[in-house]
């Protein structure tokens, strides 16, 4: 039986605890500073949320893909939470990240549906460049006031800044980008090789959760037009810090079992583990940033007439 006055108090008075706390607090503060910086630098337009980066790809296809990904992930999470582990499933970082990716696809489905509605009501060509469309529309139809009004409406629609929900979707997208890489690398490269199957409970469902999260998001990245600024690494750091704080609070309230061995504080190696976990966020986010960069550098060369180079 866990005892706060004896074992618990001694546990939290170990020298490793304040050191690990400092390792969490410093990235948290730096991330907050970076978040304030990125708000004033990055511009996000509404059409970035739903317009595919392929000229001949109708936005309806992106809508269908996002809806399909959401349904698949919702089904997997339903099996994990309702049919197997219950609320205990959210004791793990994997389920946190998986649910966040699912939220991204839910928001993406809504914005893609809005984009399809915009295309239908502005008579836009299927996924043509907005600037090219507007220029051609003005040159060929400037004779009538009615067409000019339609062109002006389309221009305003394409140049409309994304509001709160649009920026929230981009933040979730980039938080998921780093989190899925971190989740899958830690699971397949650290936990699976060094922990027994009885401890992990490895099965098809768990394997799917630690692979489909990245697969679905990478495919969406290859299709969408969302920008990927480096400074939004801050939101990824905040997400992980929030999870660690959540675990500390639960542990302080009486939960003695850590879901991941490297979160354990009752070892002199704890500060090293926490420091390594803090540092690894940079390469994890960097891996996904390289995927986005490769998309914008390789695909235009392979498909020069079909792929629209990102700005």
Automatic annotation (TrEMBL):
Membrane-spanning residues where? 12-35, 56-78, 98-120, 171-194, 200-223, 235-260, 272-291
Name used for this protein in its record: Uncharacterized protein
Q: What is the lineage of its organism?
A: Eukaryota, Viridiplantae, Streptophyta, Embryophyta, Tracheophyta
Would you tell me the Gene Ontology cellular component terms? membrane
Specify the domain of life of the species encoding this protein. Eukaryota
Keywords annotated in UniProt:
Membrane, Transmembrane, Transmembrane helix
């Amino acid at each position: 039986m866990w005892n706060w006055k004896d074992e618990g108090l001694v546990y939290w008075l170990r020298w490793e605890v304040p050191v690990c706390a400092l390792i969490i607090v410093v990235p948290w503060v730096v991330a907050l500073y970076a978040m304030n910086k990125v708000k004033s630098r990055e511009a996000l337009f509404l059409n970035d949320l739903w317009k595919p980066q392929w000229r001949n790809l109708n936005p309806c296809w992106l809508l269908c893909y996002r809806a399909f990904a959401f349904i698949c992930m919702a089904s997997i999470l339903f099996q994990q939470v309702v049919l197997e582990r219950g609320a205990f499933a959210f004791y793990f970082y994997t389920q946190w990240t998986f649910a966040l990716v699912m939220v991204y696809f839910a928001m993406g489905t809504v914005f893609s549906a809005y984009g399809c509605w915009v295309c239908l009501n502005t008579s836009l060509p299927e996924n043509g460049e907005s600037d090219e469309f507007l220029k051609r529309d003005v040159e060929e139809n400037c004779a009538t006031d009615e067409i000019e009004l339609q062109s002006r409406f389309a221009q305003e629609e394409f140049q409309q800044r994304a509001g709160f929900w649009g920026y929230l979707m981009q933040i979730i997208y980039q938080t998921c980008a780093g989190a899925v890489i971190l989740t899958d690398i830690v699971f397949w490269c650290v936990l699976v090789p060094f922990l027994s199957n009885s401890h992990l409970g490895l099965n098809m469902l768990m394997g799917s959760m630690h692979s489909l999260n990245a697969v679905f998001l990478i495919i969406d990245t290859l299709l969408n037009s969302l920008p990927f600024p480096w400074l939004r690494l801050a939101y990824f750091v905040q997400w992980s810090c929030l999870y660690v704080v959540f675990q500390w609070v639960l542990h302080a309230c009486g939960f003695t079992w850590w879901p991941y061995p490297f979160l354990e504080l009752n070892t002199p190696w704890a500060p090293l583990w926490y420091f390594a976990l803090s540092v690894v966020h940079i390469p994890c986010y960097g891996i996904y940033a390289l995927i986005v960069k490769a998309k914008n550098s390789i695909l235009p060369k392979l498909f020069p007439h079909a792929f629209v180079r990102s700005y």
